[in-house]
Structures are given as C-alpha cells and as structure tokens.
Amino acid sequence: MNWAALLSFIHPMAVVLICGFWILHIISKEYKQKIDEQTEVKK
Amino acid sequence: MAVIAFWIIFVVCMATAFLLMRSVKKADDYYVMGHRATTIGLAGLLTASYLSAVTFIGIAGIEYLNGPPIFLIAYGSWIGMVVGFLYVGRRLRAYNALTMPDYIQGRFGSKVRVVATVVLIVGLLGYGVVQMMGAGVLLAAMTGYNYQMAIIIFAVMSIAFCAAAGMYSVLVVNTILMVTILIAMFVASPIFLSLGGGLHGVSAGLFAIDPNFWSAGGRVLHKPMGWTIGQLLLWIFFFMSAPWISAMALPAKNDFVVMRGVLIAVFITTVGVVIVFLGVSAVYNVNPNIKPPDQVFIWASKNLVNPVLGGFALAGVLAAILSTAATLFLGAGFGLSRDLYERYLMDKGRSITDKQKLTYARLAQVVVVAVVTIFALTKPLAVYWVGAWAGALFATAWMPMLIAGFEWKRATRQGVLASIIIGTGSYIFLYQMVSVAKMFALPFNLDPVIFGIIISCASLWIVSLMTQPVESDMKVQVEMKTLSLAKKTIESLTPAKLKKEIFNTKILAWGTMILAVVILGWFIIAIVPKVSS
User: Could you tell me the residue range of the domain that residue B315 belongs to?
Assistant: First the structure.
C-alpha cells in the first residue's frame, strides 16, 4: 500500500468532513438548544 | 485569446471598482461592506482569496516536477482555512471587530496592537510580493510584455481596484470572475489530466517513469518526513491566523452565511485543487521540459486546450491572484490607516470624520501597493518560498497570541509581546542558520517554523506566569466567551426563517461531505492500487 498516495486523497476528504461535522455540531449545540428553549417558553 | 481575456478582466475590474465607489459612503462600507455579504458572495470571496499565485504557479510548478503527494499531503492551508473561519472568524464577527487588530486592542491594549500590526503589515506585504510576482509571471506569459512591465500593469490595476471601493470591489468582482476560476479548476485541469493519460497516465504512467513521483518527499526534492510535517503545520497555523482569511467572516450578513460560505469554499478548494494538482502532474507526460516549472499551468492553458478555454482558464488564475492580492493589500492598508494612524490620532484626542477615514484608507492602499511593487520588481526568490517565509511569520507571531487571547484569561500583555518578538526572532534566526547558511540541521529535519512556534508558545506561557494580567483584559476574555454569533443571528431572524436557514445549512453540509467522499474516494480506488508496489 502506498501510504503517500492514500494520504493525498484522505487528507482533503478529511478536511471536508471536519468542516461539515463541525458545522452540524454548531447548529446542534448553539441553535437547536435555543430553538427548543423558545418552543418550551411558548408552550 | 489570452491577451483578449486579460483586457476584458482589466476593464471589468476597473469599471466595477469605480461604479461601486458611489456605494462606499462610510468606513464600515469600505472595510466590511456594511455586513451585507450573502452566501454565494462570501463563498466566492473566500475561495478566490484562498486560491492564489502560490497554488496555480508556485506549488503547481513543484507538483509538476515532483508528483501529486508532496503537497496534497502538506497542504495544511485547507484545515487552516476551516479553523480560521469557524474558530477565529466567528469570534471576531461576534465581537464586531472591523479588523483583527481591533480585537487585539480590546484584548491586550495598544502596545500589543502596534507590535502585532507591524508584524501583520510585514507578513501581508511579504505574501503580497508573492502575488505580485506570480501576476508578473502570468501577465508576461499572457501578454508578451516583459516581467517588469507586467508588474507595473498589475500594480496600477491593484491600486485602482483597492483604493476605489475597498471590500466592495473585492467581493463584487470575485462574484463575476468566480466563473473563470471554476473553469480553470473544473474544465481546463481535467483536460490537462486527460491529455496526460488520464488517471492511468498520472498514476501508473508517472510511477513507471519514477516511483518517487508518488512519494511524500517528491521525485526531485526528496524531502524528509520532518519537512512534510513542518510544512503541514506551517500552513495550518498560517491560514488559521491569516487575517485575510478569518476577516472574510466580517462582511457576512449572519452566522448561516459564514457557515454555508465556508462549506462551499472548502468543497471547491479541496476537490478543485486536487484536480489541478493531478492535471499539472499529468502534463509531465506531455512535456517534461517546461522551464521554469512555475509556468506549467500557463503552458498547458496555451498549448493543450482550445484557445477560448485557455484564455478563460488563465483569466481564472489572474482573478484568483488579483483577489488574494487585493485582500492582502486591503489588510495591510487597513493596518496602516486604521490600526496605526487613526488609533494614533485618537490617542492624541483628535476626532476623525468618516470622510477622513476613507481618505487615509485609500492613501494607505497606494503606499502598500507601491512598496510591494518595488520588492516584486527585484524578484527575490521563487514564488512558493517567499510565501512560506511570510506564512511562517504569522504562524509564529500571531497564532499563539490568538489562541491564548480566546482561551486563557491569564495571558498577559507582556507574555504576548514576548511571544511575538521571541517567536519571530527565533524563526528568522533558525531559518537563516539552518535553511540559508546550512550551519546545522534541526532534530528529525523538522522545519524551523515548528521550533519557532514552540519557542513562541513557551515564551507566552512563561512570561505570562511571571507578570500580572490587566483587569480589563481579563474582562474582555470573559465577555468574548459569552458573545455568540449564533445568539445575534437568532435575534435577527423570524422563527420560520431560522428554521429554513438551519435546514438549508444542514443539507449543504451533508451534500458537500457526501460528494467529497464520492469524488475523492473514486480517485483513491482508481489511483492508489496502481502506484502501490
């Protein structure tokens, strides 16, 4: 297995995945909680 | 055709910049477009600011001679951009800073701001010289003018472009020219790859010529693992602290624009750059004698594709260089006019009108471009190596300060000053001793920047523990922990709009991840077995 060749494509793939999951985490942690709080207050 | 494409871009840029001048009424408009940037605008801005002469000329030349892995592995600027935008940029946007030194002033006071701004200006000028040199090489090849004349033309273009409408110019022209950048990456480069034998040619073909084409250290350079790790970390820390990357978050309308903008930019720059690097590597199968190798993308655009397409591809490279150069020049100009001169006047108790602020900002642009032009005319070093040197300055001087500023209440002004001065000084010293004079080698052949960063962090930590933090500085750190761009965004949107924004952002996140896995996974399946012995 040529690890240099594998890393050449795993590296950019990992960057996109990190970015995507980071943003999903931001939405889940910073937005969803606030929206759930607002829904509870309205109830 | 390339000449015609260049003059079209020249006219578009100048006309747009002067038309937009009327929209720039106050300093806010000039610096951050009045916080009105949309997702597509921001994605274009970030993509075009990220891509530059280093990608299409400097590294392309290295890839051509050495094969794809050397920089596909070491290209830490990708993750640096993500961290710079989501970790640094969002915080600055929540703090409502107009520039990064704004935040430094608030967090660490004016002495640190002045020193940090001087380093900022030197680093931006250094990276600006890289862009100017790359533009000179490109324009000389496109127009037939000599390198010096090409530099002068680009300088005139930059002054008019930057001084007229600041960030507005950059964002609007980026959006118009984004098409040419996408053509360079996703149309021209695949054609280079195809004519170079396709995926088989770039993998098995190059491997058969020399297996080192698919080694981490490169066929010609034979760089050790320590160098690869050093370059990876250099570009991560450089782009993470690069003011013109994190500052791209400042014009955003809201947090969702920030998040979606970086998703699109990251997808385009990762997949697109992989295709560009495969394309220029494959060109070796067509012509192994391109000299200097920096010209590989230019040669391929002129000789391997239809003239109209080649013209657009070169226009795309020029657009990327102009966008990055403009952002750098604006950053250095803001540093001079706002962060040094205006602050100096304010400290003296003098008030400044918005009109005066705009005048100083525009004058500063002229000074910055003039200085960069003089250096670029001397052509100090190859494009890539000047860029790496400027990048190392940010990595050693700014990165520890930024992280400590956000995360460590105990960080003191003296600690940060020590970090900037000792970190920068140690990097310059080690670079001269190890890379230039070759007087000794560092352990594991690690790049001097790694040791510069370690020394910078250690200085910050030790001196901070020996000194007392200022009460107001600690208050700012605590305040920033409570500031939330998400909270500001929620308050600015109706519940229905908020729900829609969340949905759209999640769809985009999943969409880009799935596409990246599919495309890059396909490259892995098609290439890796053929280059594994």
Answer: 2-88+126-379
